[in-house]
Amino acid sequence: MKVAIFGGTGKTGQHVVQQALELGHEVVMLARTPSNFTIQHPKLTILKGDILDAACVEATIQGVDAVISVLGPSNNKPEFVISKGTDHILNAMKQHNVRRIIISAGAGVRDPQDKPKFIDHFFGLLLNLLSKNAVEDMKQVVAKVRSSDRDWSVIRVPMLTDQPAQGTLKIGYVGDITTRLSRADMAAFMLKQLVDDTYLSQAPAISN
Ligand SMILES: NC(=O)c1ccc[n+]([C@@H]2O[C@H](COP(=O)([O-])OP(=O)(O)OC[C@H]3O[C@@H](n4cnc5c(N)ncnc54)[C@H](OP(=O)(O)O)[C@@H]3O)[C@@H](O)[C@H]2O)c1
Q: Which SS3 state, helix, strand or coil, does residue 93 take?
């Protein structure tokens, strides 16, 4: 499969790119600073650009079979960069008839099936206090993807760690999961969705 990856330079994104290549996928990724990216592979194409640039986003998406985004806000300014970039991603997908999109978001972006416990409310309030605009940006991203006419899955995650993959996951909704997830396990789960429709039009929360 040929996959466009957004956020591939990030801490999770590097796992997504590496694992995608190991699975035999062809990868096209957009990077603001390609020179900082160390993975090289014959099946990896890196385009230089910003998700705010619609032409760069379109060039990344043209000709792919699916899109994975592990984009996350770089700061807490009220700029809503990821949400604006998501508009470009969804527009380009429509233009080039790419149906499948798998994105990540924090578990603080709620789903109607969530059953938050006291600890979830506490972390939610804390996050809103500390990173109000970043949280709002990702809420808008999820709302846009959910209301799109694409074949979407939103993978919601708790605090991420750089622990090695454990290979086992809790999958459910907020209230069912724990407070930690290794980025390697998250990447593997997101890539699995390329060939699995179980979570089509759904936003499960996952953890270790
Ligand atoms: N970290 C956590 O504990 C946590 C918790 C809950 C949810 N999440 C979610 O999990 C996902 C991955 O998290 P992470 O910690 O691995 O993220 P990260 O390391 O912060 O990576 C974010 C990625 O987004 C890219 N990006 C941001 N603005 C961009 C722009 N304007 N144009 C192009 N690329 C842009 C960054 O590119 P550059 O390399 O150029 O900066 C980077 O590749 C995100 O969706 C995040 O919201 C994370």
A: helix
Nearest residue by C-alpha to atom 15 in ligand 1:
11
73: number of Cβ within 10 Å: 19
Q: pTM for the complete prediction?
A: 0.98
Instruction: Quote the CA–CA distance of 31 and 9 in Å, as a whole number.
Output: 7
> For ligand 1, is residue 207 a contact (CB within 6 Å)?
no
Q: Cα(first)–Cα(last) distance of the chain, in Å?
A: 27
Q: Is the CB of 208 under 6 A from ligand 1?
A: no
**Shortest-distance Cα residue to atom 11 of ligand 1:** 70
Averaged confidence pLDDT in the chain: 97
Q: Is 134 in the pocket of ligand 1 (CB under 6 A)?
A: no
Which residue among 51, 53, 160 has the greatest number of ligand 1 atoms within 8 angstroms of its CB, and so is best to mutate?
160
Q: Note the pLDDT tens digit of each residue in 112-171.
A: 999 999 999 999 999 999 999 999 999 999 999 999 999 999 999 999 999 999 999 999
In the chain, DSSP assigns E strands to 2-6, 26-31, 44-48, 66-69, 100-106, 151-157, 159-161, 170-172, 180-182, 205-207
Q: By three-state DSSP, how is residue 122 classified?
A: helix
51 contacts 79 by C-beta, under 8 angstroms = no
Phi-psi region of 171 (alpha: psi -120 to 50; beta: other; left: phi over 0): beta
